[in-house]
Amino acid sequence: xxxxxxxxxxxxxxxxxxxxxxxxxFGYGFxxxxxxxxxxxxxxYSKGTTLLPREGNRPPRISETSAGxxxxxxxxxxxxxxxxxxxxxxxxxWSVPVxxxxxxAGITEYVEVCERLSDVAGVAGLELNISCPNISHGMDFGTxxxxxxxxxxxxxxxxxxxxxxxxxxxxxxxxxxxxxxxDGGADAIxxxxxYLGMKISVKERKPVLPGMGTAGLSxxxxxxxxxxxxxxxxxxxxxxLIGIGGIGSTEDALEYLVAGADAIQIGTANFYRPGVSAExxxxxxxxxxxxxxxxxRDLRWSD
Length: 303
Ligand code: SIN
Description:
Structural class: alpha/beta
CATH architecture: Alpha-Beta Barrel
Bound molecules: succinic acid
Helix content: 25-40%
Number of domains: 1
Strand order of the largest sheet: 3-4-7-8-9-10-15-16
Strand content: 15-25%
Mean pLDDT: 97
Number of strands: 16
Largest sheet: 8 strands, parallel, barrel
């Protein structure tokens, strides 16, 4: 292949290729590293990390649906101190960039977590999670453009790290929030987090996942919806876009690149086919070679 597969997400964050693994589907990378090679990845996006450790919602927390999966994890994580002190030094030895997904209950918490991670070697960037549907305040910023902008501005003031914002699709117009975070100083956008969903047990006459009752839907079921969100964002913002939602094959990844994504994240498919990211990457490279692409952007839909 003559084309350079690398992708720039801004502020010096250059991924070796567009294929990353989505937050919440790969932990902090260490279990996956024991299961098989991960050096091929363009990026690892870590589990959502908060200031203090969280145990998450009470189980069960995952349930299969037709063509998808519902999760209600509730941001279980060890807290930023463990991530900065114990995990980052291990990431420093990896060739794969690790982007830490950051969540918080308010601006102060986001700022403190991002500040703590700022000068930590091994952290390549931050992905602000303003889109978790499984805790009461998880989407407060993602559903309000003004608050989203204020949050990004506040975090921008305390870090020079590349700042990606992960948007929720659970809004009327995702482009309003996309423009707001662009104005606030974000470097890139991840689109999208899970769709609000629910599964009911008729026998028990209650939701299957007890956390909030509702949960986050991912997997093939959401791909057409998420693709539409990415295509709309592409026409609204200049920032690099990372497409997420139901990607389980090379064809799926190509669809996102055509819709306007610069990079992609594989999520739910990691659970049922752990080797999927390597397959998708080699499929993309084969496609680029067969079609003499000069850049992934050659694939973009333009009208
Ligand atoms: C969770 O931990 O509940 C999922 C995280 C997310 O949706 O961002």
